[in-house]
Amino acid sequence: MHYEPSAALAKKHCLLNSAGLQPMEIMWRLTHEDAQPKPDFTAFESGKAIGRVCQIEDGPVRGLWLWTMTAAQSALPSDHPTCGRAAEGGKAGRCLIEAYQALLAHLPTRSTSGNKVGLRR
Q1: What is the average per-residue pLDDT within 27-48?
Q2: Plot region of 116 (φ>0 → left; ψ -120 to 50 → alpha; else → beta)
Q3: How far apart are CA 89 and CA 55, in angstroms?
Q4: Phi and psi torsions of 25, nearest 5°
Q5: pTM greater than 0.85
Q6: Nearest-CA neighbor of 25 among 36, 40, 16, 14?
Q7: What gap in Å lies between CA 40 and CA 108, rounded to an integer?
Q8: Per residue, what are the HEC states of the chain?
Q9: Residue 68 predicted with pLDDT over 90
Q10: What is the pLDDT of residue 15?
């Protein structure tokens, strides 16, 4: 199965934080550009990796899509998921964006450089 990130995910998203709505562009790229294309994509915001979506190729959950948020911040409540699985690639991508949105909602404001204060990517 070949996965192309949906056009909706490649467009600008309005992510809510304590300062209000902040438009951001989430870009999807192959995780390993030099390797043969596989269903494995990394999401970027402002040139920084925020997470990954890939299809599980082996084992009992073969065919499911794994998503994981690589951007981290200690203020995120421990009960909020930062990784998971989904039946479809688009759903996994949306879960990643929702997790990132929750992370941004817990950060105070953007610094003058445009990055969130305290965000590690």
Answers
A1: 83
A2: beta
A3: 7
A4: -105, 120
A5: no
A6: 14
A7: 32
A8: CCCCCCHHHHCEEEEEECCEEEEEEEEEEECCCCCCCCCEEEEEECCEEEEEEEECCCCCCCCCEEEEECCECCCCCCCCCCEEEECCHHHHHHHHHHHHHHHHHCCCCECCCCCECCCEC
A9: yes
A10: 53
Q: Which residues of 10-46 are buried (b: 16+ CB within 10 A; e: fewer)?
A: eeebebebeeeeeebebebeeeeeeeeeebbbbbebe
Check residue 61 and give its pLDDT. 94
Here the tokens at position 54 are 């890939």
Give whichever of 28-32, 74-78, 93-97 has the largest mean pLDDT.
93-97
User: Which residue in the block uniquely carries the two structure tokens 């979506």?
Assistant: 53
Q: Has residue 21 got a pLDDT over 90? A: no
Domain layout of the chain by residue ranges: 7-105
Residue type for 91, please? K
Where residue 96 falls among pLDDT bands split at 50, 70, 90? very high
